[in-house]
Write a structure and sequence with these properties.
By secondary structure, chain A is mainly beta. Helix content of chain A is 0%, strand content 51%. Chain B is built from no helices and eleven strands. Chain B has strands at residues 5-7, 10-13, 19-24, 31-38, 42-50, 53-57, 64-68, 74-78, 87-94, 103-104, 108-112. In chain B, a hairpin with a 2-residue loop joins strand 5 and strand 6 (53-57). The chains are: A mainly beta (115), B mainly beta (113).
Chain lengths: 115, 113
């Protein structure tokens, strides 16, 4: 069964500082990996995705993530955080085959940005 | 705006009651997914429909059911509601093929009192 672990429940950074949110997954084959962001009272917005190919993927809002198969990780990074990045971030894994395309989510990491 | 529409945004009801949540997918998307978000369980997959047919089931209670209609909108029916059913219910849609991306609606917040 697929699973996702986000080790950090809550992270606080200062505006302008760099950010890295950790994500580890468990899946038997090459996974499809996603990062979503949820602002208070909002739905989930897709930041970026990895299906195959280049292990460094670029997303919206200046975010990037790196797929490391050897570490079963897909960490999200941003070089300089803006106050508007404060939100909850979810890593998710999807199946790369079959007909069941459900996403399995991590518990999320809440990001607080200090001025 | 993701293009996925969920109604209502908020729902307050009492234990034992039945409610229906509605989802209109993005134009052209054939798959609809329902997820439940709660503080203790996080985001959990409930059920998936593809072009009117049930495709996959997750941690969905027997008191819950769903369907996808010919116009591709979907409804999630929750019955005999309990306090623990209070949660945010999300609908997502995708084209439904491999490498599909799921787009999420804004959710329906259900409060069972």
């Amino acid at each position: 069964a697929q699973s996702v672990t986000q080790p950090d429940i809550h992270i606080t950074v200062s505006e302008g500082a760099s950010l890295e949110l950790r994500c580890n997954y468990s899946y038997g084959a090459t996974p499809y990996l996603f990062w979503y962001v949820q602002s208070p009272g909002q739905g989930l917005q897709l930041l970026l995705k990895y299906f195959s190919g280049d292990t460094l993927v670029q997303g919206i809002k200046g975010f990037e993530a790196e797929f490391k198969r050897s570490q079963s990780s897909f960490n999200l990074r941003k070089p300089s955080v803006h106050w508007s990045d404060a939100a909850e971030y979810f890593c998710a894994v999807g199946r790369s085959g079959g007909s069941n395309y459900k996403l399995t989510f991590g518990k999320g990491t809440l990001l607080t940005v200090n001025p | 705006d993701s293009g996925v529409t969920q109604t209502p945004k908020h729902l307050i009801t009492a234990t034992g009651q039945r409610v229906t949540l509605r989802c209109s997918p993005r134009s052209g998307d054939l798959s609809v997914y329902w997820y439940q978000q709660s503080l203790d369980q996080g985001l959990q997959f409930l059920i998936q429909y593809y072009n009117g047919e049930e495709r996959a089931k997750g941690n969905i209670l027997e008191r819950f059911s769903a369907q996808q209609f010919p116009d591709l909108h979907s409804e999630l029916n929750l019955s005999s509601l309990e306090l623990g059913d209070s949660a945010l219910y999300f609908c997502a849609s995708s084209v439904g093929q491999a490498k599909n991306i799921q787009y999420f609606g804004a959710g329906t917040r259900l409060s069972v009192l």
